[in-house]
Design goal:
The complex is a heterodimer of chains A (192) and B (154). By secondary structure, chain A is an alpha+beta fold. Chain A is built from seven helices and six strands, in the order αβαββαβββαααα. In chain A, strands 1-2-3-5-4 form a five-stranded mixed beta barrel. Chain A is globular, with a radius of gyration of 21 Å. The N and C termini of chain A lie far apart (79 Å). With 154 residues, chain B is an alpha+beta fold. A five-stranded mixed barrel of chain B has the order 1-2-3-5-4. The longest helix of chain B has 16 residues. Chain B is globular.
Chain lengths: 192, 154
């Protein structure tokens, strides 16, 4: 009887915490950002559309670049959500994954795991390649895609200072979002 | 009889240890009130603590991040963050206009909640209320990051 109960407990634990102790940092060459909760992580995954996976809302080609995309890790079937690409310019990860929609890839980057903020399985993708390929692609296409989509605002300065939608919003509502009058008073005081 | 008891105990063990996220994979209708935040700055700490990357202090950066395709989250009053995958008929969660338009706003959303692998997701059926930007964090933190507001030229 004791043997049977122990077997049951072992089975329960095996199913409940699959590969919890697996170390995904092995083999990673990700660049540190010196973030409090970062862990280097490289793994194989399928690129998925979370809205499709969770809610069954499944347009062709993962939504053609309009949606957030996720990585269904092959080792444990955990769905990892990339928040960021490799660029230091307020840029997400979806554009980097879009060319690999529904394909099996290998990624390298930083996982964010912070129990204080309940952060789990959040990711910064730094490079990506199809499984079997030898050459990595740097996850830095977002600003190039932005430039292609915004040819009218070519020029110097980072994209976020030139983006028409952002500049329209700031022109109407101010940097604080509270209106131009509040903005003006704050800016005067702040830079005095 | 005995074997049935053992099997029952094993199943109970499995259920007790199973990840709670699995329970919400089929979706649950909820109403949630919270601020539309930039999830990268909130979770990474790259710009400081979580209180500094909300509200007016971080509004400009929230615009940058939303337009840049960083997932927008709804930070509820109890501290739960819901990744917003869709708002009404707009599924452009990668830098779309609807999500950009609510940056730093406190909204009440009715929708379907999904949880998977420790991450909460929200598919908003309807924005029931929009209180606008009411979290006046600039009074405590100034602009975050500091360069969000360019210094006026003399």
């Amino acid at each position: 009887m004791r043997h049977t109960v122990l077997t049951g407990i072992i089975i329960a634990c095996a199913f409940s915490t699959p590969l919890m102790a697996q170390d995904f940092s092995k083999g990673s060459t990700a660049k540190s950002w010196d973030l409090y909760a970062e862990q280097k992580a490289t793994f194989k995954a399928k690129v998925v559309d979370p809205l499709c996976t969770l809610a069954g809302d499944c347009p062709a080609n993962c939504g053609d670049g309009h949606r957030q995309l996720a990585l269904l890790r092959m080792d444990d079937n955990v769905m990892i959500l990339p928040l960021k690409n490799s660029q230091a310019a307020f840029t997400g990860g979806a554009n980097e994954l879009q060319p690999f929609c529904a394909q099996d890839v290998e990624v390298d980057g930083l996982l964010l795991e912070d129990p204080d903020l309940n952060a789990k399985n959040l990711y910064m993708v730094q490079k990506i390649r199809l499984i079997g390929d030898t050459k990595w692609t740097k996850a830095n296409r977002k600003t190039k895609d932005w430039a292609t989509a915004n040819p009218s605002v070519k020029g110097k300065g980072p994209w976020f200072r030139r983006d028409p939608r952002i500049n329209t919003d700031i022109a109407e509502n101010g940097y604080l979002g509270l209106g131009l009058k509040t903005d003006e008073a704050f800016i005067k005081e702040w830079f005095e | 009889m005995f074997n049935a008891k053992i099997i029952g105990l094993t199943i109970a063990g499995l259920a007790a240890f199973a990840p709670p996220a699995l329970a919400k994979e089929n979706g649950e209708r909820i109403a949630v009130t919270g601020e539309a935040i930039d999830t990268w700055c909130y979770y990474s700490g790259v710009m400081g603590g979580p209180d500094a990357v909300q509200g007016t202090a971080h509004h400009t950066c929230a615009l940058w991040c939303s337009a840049g395709g960083i997932p927008v989250g709804l930070l509820a009053e109890d501290g739960t963050v819901y990744m917003v995958l869709k708002i009404e008929n707009d599924d452009t969660s990668n830098g779309g206009d609807t999500q950009l338009s609510i940056a730093s706003h406190v909204i009440t959303a009715d929708g379907m909640y999904y949880a998977r692998d420790g991450i909460n997701y929200l598919v908003v059926s309807k924005v029931v209320a929009d209180q606008g930007i009411i979290n006046l964090t600039h009074e405590d933190y100034g602009p975050v990051p500091g360069f969000a507001i360019p210094e006026p030229k003399q």
